[in-house]
């Protein structure tokens, strides 16, 4: 049997901005793209698919590593000639939502092939990819990219994640527009990959209970995977709590600069302002209305927003999931020093 390999590379520095859906990754991506050498961020689920299939032993390690490396090299090449630029106006990854619009217009007219390879070698661009709950399978990315990889893991208070999830959790594992990997139980009923092993229970739950159980399981799996990484690999991960970043981003931007060996530019301040960072009210951002976000009331405070969500959980969640959420909140607030009272 042949062994697949790829020992050459175009993408020599790679950043995954990862996090559970709703954790605020779309805020950081455009800000990071304003840094020197960092490319506009891309949403490419293929990295998630390969990593998750590998986690469940559905694809051999050598093949998975080869695919991860090929897709990264292909991405950096296409970016360098502005191939497949997204022109959708409202998309977070769209052309109009980057601070470097002229960079990608200019590249449309530059030569491809050998000339493009020379530009990549000279400019040493940093590939930036946005992923969704990939951390439970992140070990494959370390196998594929080694020291080239930096993972920025966005985390957010579980209560606010749940408020995001309940608006579309029933899409997972059932709707044609849901493009996550699905699994099925012995009766053929489908569920999202992160419900593997408890598919039937997942499908019997209310949206609130589904959200709490899924998020709790993902938090636990993230911690388990992190503890299994080497000290060197753990050092390549930056955890950024949403609550602290949007109120005071400077410390985290400095950490990113040092980790990536790059610098903020004059465009960074402009992008921070566009993303409403820093801000006093956590929910006063550029949220996704189709995921339940609504502009907060004029007299809203972080505590009032927190209490409103807590009341919603109290009214809709089963006792088992309420207990689970209480423990999850306690762990999160303690670990990341986030308080609302």
Number of strands: 7
Structural class: alpha/beta
Helix content: 40-55%
**Runs with pLDDT <50, length 5+?**
none
| Count of individual helical segments | 15
- Our count of domains comes out at 2
Largest sheet: 5 strands, parallel
Mean pLDDT: 93
What's the order of the H and E elements? EHEHHHHEHEHEEHHHEHHHHH
Indicate the overall shape: globular
What fraction strand? 5-15%
The N- to C-terminal Cα distance equals 60 Å
Can you describe this structure?
With 341 residues, the chain is of the alpha/beta class. The chain folds into 2 domains: 9-156 and 231-286, no CATH class; 157-229 and 297-341, no CATH class. It has helices spanning 25-32, 46-55, 61-80, 101-107, 114-123, 139-145, 158-165, 199-204, 207-228, 231-234, 242-247, 250-260, 266-274, 302-316, 319-336; strands spanning 14-19, 42-43, 127-130, 149-155, 182-184, 190-192, 237-241. α3 (61-80) crosses α6 and α7 (158-165) packs across α9 (207-228). The model has no long low-confidence stretch (mean pLDDT 93).
């Amino acid at each position: 049997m042949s062994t697949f390999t790829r020992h050459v590379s175009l993408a020599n520095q790679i950043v995954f901005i990862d996090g559970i859906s709703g954790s605020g990754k779309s805020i950081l991506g455009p800000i990071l793209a304003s840094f020197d050498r960092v490319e506009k961020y891309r949403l490419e689920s293929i990295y998630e698919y390969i990593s998750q299939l590998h986690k469940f032993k559905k694809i051999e390690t050598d093949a998975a590593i080869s695919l991860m490396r090929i897709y990264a090299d292909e991405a950096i090449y296409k970016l360098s000639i502005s191939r497949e630029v997204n022109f959708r106006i409202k998309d977070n990854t769209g052309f109009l939502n980057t601070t470097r619009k002229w960079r990608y217009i200019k590249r449309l007219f530059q030569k491809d092939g050998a000339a493009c390879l020379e530009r990549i070698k000279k400019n040493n661009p940093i590939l930036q990819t946005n992923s969704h709950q990939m951390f439970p399978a992140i070990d494959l990315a370390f196998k594929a990219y080694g020291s080239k990889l930096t993972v920025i893991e966005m985390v957010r208070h579980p209560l606010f994640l749940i408020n995001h999830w309940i608006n579309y959790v029933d899409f997972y594992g059932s709707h044609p527009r849901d493009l996550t990997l699905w699994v099925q139980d012995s009766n053929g009923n489908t569920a999202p990959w992160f419900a593997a092993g408890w598919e039937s229970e997942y499908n019997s739950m209310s949206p609130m209970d589904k959200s709490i159980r899924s998020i709790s399981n993902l938090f636990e799996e993230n911690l388990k995977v992190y503890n299994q990484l080497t000290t060197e690999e753990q050092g390549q991960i930056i955890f950024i709590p949403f609550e602290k970043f949007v109120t005071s981003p400077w410390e985290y931007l400095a950490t990113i600069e040092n980790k990536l060996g790059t610098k903020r530019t004059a465009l960074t301040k402009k992008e921070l302002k566009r993303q409403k960072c820093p801000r006093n009210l956590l929910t006063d951002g550029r949220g996704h209305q189709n995921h339940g976000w609504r502009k907060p009331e004029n007299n809203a405070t972080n505590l009032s927003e927190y209490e409103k969500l807590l009341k919603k959980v109290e009214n809709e969640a089963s006792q088992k999931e309420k207990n689970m959420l209480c423990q999850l909140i306690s762990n999160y607030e303690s670990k990341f020093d986030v308080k609302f009272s």
